[in-house]
Write a structure and sequence with these properties.
Length: 570
Amino acid sequence: AMIALAKKPHRAVILTTANALLQRIPPSELVEAQTFHARPGNQIDMNALVSRLETSGFERVPTVRGIGEFAVRGGILDLFAPGWTEALRLDFFGDTLESIRVFDAATQRTTGQRKSMALQAMSEVALTPETISRFRRSYIEAFGAPQRDDGLYAAVSEGRRFAGMEHWLPFFYERLETVFDYLPDTPVIFDHLAHEALAERHTLILDHYEARRKQADGALKDAVPYKPVAPDLLYLSPENLITSLGPREAIDFTPFDAPDVGAKKVYHAGSRHGRSFVEERADPNANVFDVVVKHIVDERAARRRVVIAGWTEGSLDRLGQILAEHHLGNLKQVVTLAEAEKLEPGQAALAVLPLESGFETEKLVVVAEQDILGDRLIRRSKRKKRPSDFIAEASALSAGDIVVHADHGIGRFIGLRTIEAVGAPHDCLEIHYAGDDRLFLPVENIELLSRYGSDTAEATLDKLGGGAWQSRKARLRKRLLDMAGQLIRIAAERQMRSAPPLVPAEGLYGEFAARFPYEETDDQQTAIDSVRDDLAAGKPMDRLICGDVGFGKTEVALRAAFIAAMEGFQ
């Protein structure tokens, strides 16, 4: 975020917290000065670049997987810098940068080329001769001569990074700035709890400082105490923050009507919370949808525009069907609130708007799905596994792990290697087999690999070109064909039989389904649709619903049970 701000964006909305707003940060010109620019053809000392990465906070790793990491393999340097959406692979020939390639950190595959790059520091502290010298001088001025075992002072003096060294940020730079210095003349909007949060955060900072200082004063003679920086050097106080705003416009949000704000102007947003139907939902003798429809009809009669907001397309369709069954139909669909404001007075519409609750203005009433059905819970989604992402699993392999190649059988994974192929470097996975045979598998063919399993102690490596693996595959193929034939016969017999079709009454089923608190996942909705199709097909049902714990199998089963019960079956 600091890097993005240093670029002085012309149009941006910056969302921040009390913690971040109070903290002082390095000057914006230093952030830009620490940026390293390069393009193919440039003469670059690779060793100097590696040293720069290490002093800038990057971590050297065998294989780059995430932001802040870099790896070196011969004349190739991989790195993933902050502010980047993808990792880069720098290919050197001597001190000449020959190419900049984009690669997927999960698969390690090259996905494109770059004409240039801009490399920013990973940390707020860059260990240069100037910053090290300034730190040493400031540290001694603040705390006196360092003890022999002072790890922070020793590490910085030697140009090594020290965990948490950013807490002494004022010692590294001549001056620090604030977020407001990065964005001069930018209006600032405070949430109604912001000033309270700022005061609480500053009090907590002072309390921590006093506790650290007392701990340092009471430390044993030979112990190296934690020496905290004075709070005013690293943080703004709430009073200093107001001063830092300068003449810029400051806007305060508040949920209260006409608060006492002195000379400030007060603008009323003209909105309030909408009607909640919580009492009707809790009343077993009331139908919440009848009450909702009456409320909407009354608002339309008062010539107010009404929007019924659903969280998703699916939930909105279901809500629209239920309202239509309760005699509120012919609802137009709008996409945005701006479109809703253009509705004719007294007109109602549906919209996909992920609102936690509805609201009302003088001319517009928004009824949210949660107002009608209660809070919607979002089930954690499970990342789908795609073939192109298979290496993301292989990336967890360690040297020595057992893997299975589709064509060559069981081998031992050694690691990633870059080899020369057709006169060009190529990234491969090195796999060893029996008899010291070796296979170099290009990363683009990684889908041929799979894990061996959990019990690798009994694994016997296959021999490249041997017949053992092919024999095992042939025997397994025959067993699979026999099993498939048996399954086909059973399926054919089932297909010849008939069963009563079970089709639910849409109104009752829709109201039942709407009461579930969780939003259906894509996979769950697919399973529900498939089960309903099976029940309505007039054939004996044969379907297994399989899923992780907590992913909604019971909800699928309850829908099927409801349909069966409504049709008179168990």
